[in-house]
Amino acid sequence: MIEKIKRQLHSELERALKVQFSIEVPVIVEEPKRANQGDISVPVFPLVKAFSKPLVEVVDAVRSLILETSLNEYFESVDVFGGFINITLKKQKVASAVIADFMINSDNIGSCAFGKDKTICIDYSSPNIAKPFSIGHLRSTIIGHALGNILEKCGYKIIRINHLGDFGTQFGKIIYAYIHYGSEEAVKKNPIAELEKLYVLFHEKAKKDPELESKAREIFRDLEQNDPKYQSLWSWFREESLKEYMQVYKKLNVNFDSYDGEAFYNDKMKTVIDELKAKALLVQDEGAMIVDLGAELPPALIQKSDGSTLYITRDLAALFYRKATYDFHKCLYVVGNEQKLHFEQLKRVVGLMGYPYSEDIVHVNFGLVLQDGKKMSTRKGKTVKLIDVLDEAVSLSLDYIVEKNPDLPGKEEIAEKVGVSAIIFNDLKNYRGNDFEFNLQDMVNFFGQTGPYLQYTSVRINSILAQAEFQFTGKVDGSWFEKDHVYELMKTIGSYGEIIEKSALEYAPNLIAKYLLNLASLFNTLYGKDRILVEDIEEKQTKLHVLYMVRAILNDGMNLLGMQIIERM
């Protein structure tokens, strides 16, 4: 709400200054440098030079114009602190506006419409088939899913794409290993584990016989050319992989509109290569075909000397298909920091081809998952499976719930929601570009900066509201909002929409996560200071209105992040 007041003040003040001084100047409207100096601050120093008048004169003029705006009904005081004009707002007026705004938007709190009639494609998760769904795919899956929810909240149509890693030379290796060392029975019994074992075995054999690498490349080339035997094996491996991955997606409550992986674009890459040739962008280099990207970037390798394609070739085909099919406003790729160069090359190639939407390609980068400061991808030489980590989090959550409330009905289902949500929240509370430390014990803690803390706060409020049989009417006693800790909570409630908007524009779910932690903390402070279920009906109703809004926002925010809501704990 205060952000809304700031925006309106900014607009009205710029118009008024233009009328009075006949000069168009940018105005800054910000928060005061010190918390005890009001709610809004307008620095006047930048205006002095533009108007060529003394500071005192400009301050008086600006202060008078502020008092004449349509917002003056919100102003408790407008004070001068040197070169700053600071505004203190009327607490009850702001709180009433927050409640009124909540009532108007109660069906979709915090929503906005700047994405209306626009489509965003999000490419995320994208595990490699015939390999376990590892902890390494956690961040892409969780960040991509949350961003889809957040952008959808802002009016965008979201196309969720799981661009499976289902093509490439590694499939030549797996097929070769299966034909020479594998068995149908073993793969059927435990598909992913057996295929991974065959892949490892191939590399062990290839160390002694390097010729195997050439044979694997030949198989992949034949696979690209639709050899029926290899196509049949590839389809089987893909189908078995998806069955296992769907168990993880079900646990995370993640879904997609498309599972078209790299192989889907196999018959579309010739068109890309032909277009690059027609536009004189392809250059032969030691038998391979490249696009020269200038001095700033290494060349993009489009086709190997044996005629097989590469990752960037398939990404080009995928991008052009998505543009033709969905006419996207933006195409987001939720991929690790290490792929920065790849997406710079992709954008540059698309730009050289003459397509302006090269600027609509967005690499939503993220850091590593660490354990004891090291990349959490292997443990004693074995892949850390995400499903095992999720199950362990659920088990720890169940232990805690049994200890605290052994008679709780449905505790297994609740532990499932708490454990999985704990992992999701722990990831998203961190800025995506940074690495973060993975500590399961800390994640499932019901106190501190955790997902269970948010869920527990929501449950606590739910219990109070159920006990009081509360209904939201909007009728409140404003005197309670004069208390500083209550007003601080109301201001935070009123800023939810702005947080969502900023999170969407910056592709930063951590902003919502941090906001929810602050909201829960402010509520728990209030709960410790104020008795809620008091005798006075009007006072009780006022307090319950605030609790109702806090719970609604907590639940909505957790939903956006992909967490599960629980009613009791």
SSE arrangement:
Blueprint: H1 2-21, E1 40-43, H2 45-51, H3 55-67, E2 75-81, E3 84-89, H4 91-104, E4 119-123, H5 138-153, E5 157-161, H6 169-181, H7 184-189, H8 191-208, H9 211-224, H10 228-252, H11 269-278, E6 282-285, E7 288-291, E8 300-303, H12 311-326, E9 330-336, H13 340-352, E10 361-366, E11 369-371, E12 374-375, E13 378-379, E14 382-383, H14 386-404, H15 411-428, E15 436-437, H16 440-443, H17 451-468, H18 484-494, H19 496-505, H20 509-529, H21 537-561
Parallel strand pairs: 4-5, 4-9, 9-10, 11-15
Antiparallel strand pairs: 1-3, 2-3, 6-7, 7-8, 11-12, 13-14
Helix pairs in contact: 4-18, 5-19, 6-8, 6-9, 9-10, 11-12, 14-15, 17-20, 17-21, 18-20, 19-20, 20-21
State the shape. Answer: flat
* CA-based gyration radius: 29 Å
Strand order of the largest sheet: 5-4-9-10
Largest sheet: 4 strands, parallel
Structure report:
Strand 6 and strand 7 form a beta hairpin. Helices cover 55% and strands 11% of the residues. The chain contains 21 helices and 15 strands. With 569 residues, the chain is of the alpha/beta class. The two termini are 33 Å apart. Among the domains are: 88 residues, 2-Layer Sandwich (Gyrase A, domain 2), CATH 3.30.1360.70; 79 residues, no CATH class. The strands form five sheets. It has a four-stranded parallel sheet with strand order 5-4-9-10, sandwiched between helices.
